[in-house]
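Researcher: Structure for this, please.
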Amino acid sequence: MPMYPTYSYRPTYPTYGTYPAAPEPTIVTGGGCGGGAAVAPAPLPRPPAQNDCCCGCTAPCKYKRRAAAYGSKTVDPLCNNETLRELIQEYITDDATTSKRAIQQAAEEKLEGTTNVICGHGEFSYIVHTDTFCQSTKDDITCYVFQPL
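Model: Predicted structure, token format:
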């Protein structure tokens, strides 16, 4: 016995050709002076990541090429903020866990904002959405610090 009765409604779709474009999503917001609901356009998609890099790998960092394409003054794909570089070098130790916590606390106090920190031994790779970043190495530990967009 079939799960659905044979008389159930099933829309017919063409077997070839193009389908109509789906309508753009909209966000309904509270009304203005007239009290009616206003329709706002959907938010724009997120831009591509600005910094695609790795530590200890063979692939080059891609920030340099993207920055040059947009006329940015930044040409160092590993660090565009000397304050972050100094903080990393000051607080990095031989333990990645201790280093990341100390660097994050110092960076958030100094830059007065959310800061993310990645520290580790050997090779690691990352892609981030950021305009403020720095990767620096001391002995066998590499730390990458950035402020998310």
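Researcher: Any notable elements?
Model: Confidence is low (pLDDT under 50) at residues 64-68. The helical segments are 63-69, 82-91, 96-111.
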